[in-house]
Amino acid sequence: MTPLNGAIDVHAHYLTPRLRAAMEAAGHSRPDGMPAIPEWTPQLALSTMDGTGVATALLSVSSPGVHFGDDAQARELARAVNDEGAEVVAAHPGRFGLLASLPLPDLDGALTELARACDALGADGITLHTHHAGKRLDHPDHEPLLAELDRRGTAVFLHPTSPPCWEAVSGGLPRPVVEFPFETTRAVTGLVLSGTLQRYPGIRFIVPHAGATLPALADRIAAMSLIAGGPPVDVLGALRGLHYDVAGFPLPRLLPALLTLTENLLYGSDFPFTPDPVVRGLAQLLADTDALTPRQRSAMQRERALGLFPRLG
């Protein structure tokens, strides 16, 4: 018996041979300080999905993404990995969806690939990183992209990446250990306090890793926003309206804290960057925890994801 029941995994990554080669050529054979690029094939993904009870996984490219310094190469790589992702979706009907990659910070290339991915490939949504070349999503340079995402009502999966100053702050640790949670918190805080979420209500953001440090800092951010000098914002209301996947290590402490803020929970595995045995163990913890009511558990596994991705129903 599997721990999950027909779940939809909104935080699942894929690594094609083309992407792996491009990462290695650009010096990312140890992405974000991790020991190695993990192995991934559709068959490996399906084995983990079947072992945990996941019906469908939405595939996205993790950090460091597809832009390694050259706009033309990034456009070509984004197009290639999105095509390859769409091929995986087509080859396994009902088992996979696609959250397409964009070649940011190349804005023109990103807008072109957004239209192609959504209109030609039928992508289920888009993945964006917490910053692109040091510019967070609330930076004015991203306004045309955000406007188009809003017009389309796009589901946007937010994923952390190494901060621009990681050499100074990471303490020699792989950046996912500490820097990724704070990257997520910085990015979402910027979206909230800048009024970006208010201006573009059609974008449906998914925040990873059970909200990172936002559950602990939400009240502080709300209080301090009153003296920050920006537009007046209902911080807690804005955070409450976002969607949060539970990938990573949400138990025993983080998930109960997140539930004081919102019940907009989605299942996430972070496979293959979280290896199969750990994915299975974390799924069992989610199935067994008394932090979730049966209704909350059912909604987290499938129902809320169907609200974002009705095609998967």
Structure description:
This protein is of the alpha/beta class. The protein has a single domain (7-308), classed as Metal-dependent hydrolases (TIM Barrel). The protein has helices at 17-25, 42-52, 71-91, 107-119, 143-152, 166-169, 175-193, 196-199, 214-224, 235-240, 254-259, 276-288, 294-308, and strands at residues 7-13, 54-60, 96-100, 125-129, 131-132, 135-136, 155-159, 204-207, 243-245, 265-266. The strands form 2 sheets. Strands 1-2-3-4-7-8-9-10 form an 8-stranded parallel beta sheet. The chain has a two-stranded antiparallel sheet with strand order 5-6. β9, α11 (254-259) and β10 (265-266) form a beta-alpha-beta unit. α3 (71-91) packs parallel to α4 (107-119). The chain is globular and about 50 Å long. The two termini are 23 Å apart. Its EC number is 4.1.1.52.
Give the number of DSSP strands. 10
> Ranges with pLDDT <50 over ≥5 residues?
none
- Structural class estimated from helices and strands: alpha/beta
Quaternary organization = single chain
Integer count of domains: 1
Distance between the termini: 23 Å
Q: Assess the beta-strand content as a share of residues.
A: 5-15%
| N-to-C SSE string, H for helix and E for strand | EHHEHEHEEEHEHHHEHHEHEHH
Question: What is the average of the pLDDT values?
Answer: 96
Level-2 CATH architecture: Alpha-Beta Barrel
Report Rg: 18 Å
- Classify the fold: give the CATH topology: TIM Barrel
Strand order of the largest sheet: 1-2-3-4-7-8-9-10
